[in-house]
Write a structure and sequence with these properties.
Layout: H1 19-32, E1 42-45, E2 61-72, E3 75-80, E4 93-101, H2 111-128, E5 134-137
Parallel strand pairs: 1-2, 2-4, 4-5
Antiparallel strand pairs: 2-3
Length: about 140
């Protein structure tokens, strides 16, 4: 007996053409990032003074936190890394964007918040030319 599964169709109507430049940019970035073998081990470098972080080893990838994003009610608060971090040359690093919701303010989930997060992620992709980006959503 053979089961036939019809192809899934996803119809998403675009509310505006604002997403188009980001999608085109993402497509262009895919072709500009040189593929390197990814490390088998990754270390996370949170926003602490460099003296409190481990010394990096060759062959280990670095997930570096460049910014925190806080959703508070309908607001988006982006906070850049406070502590400078310099990695040795040749270390593959990826940006790690930490996202959390203010427990005192219910999450609104507005288009403006989604667009702000999308724009922050796109900006990090452009600034770092990284093959990956990690989004870390805080769950409480």
């Amino acid at each position: 007996m053979t089961l036939s599964v019809p192809p899934a169709t996803f119809r998403v109507r675009s509310r505006s053409h604002r997403n188009s430049p980001v999608l085109v940019l993402a497509a262009l970035l895919v072709g500009t990032v040189q593929a390197e073998p990814l490390p088998g081990e990754w270390w996370w470098y949170w926003d602490r003074p460099a003296s409190q972080l481990p010394v990096h080893w060759p062959g280990v990838g670095a997930a570096v936190l460049p910014r925190h994003v806080h959703f508070s009610g309908g607001r988006v608060i982006a906070v850049s890394r406070r502590s400078a971090l310099t990695l040795p040359p040749g270390i593959l690093s990826v940006p790690l964007i930490h996202v959390e919701v203010d427990p005192a303010q219910p999450f609104a989930g507005t288009d403006a918040q989604r667009n702000a997060l999308r724009d922050l992620v796109a900006a990090e992709a452009l600034a770092r030319r990284s093959p990956l980006i990690q989004l870390d959503f805080e769950a409480r």
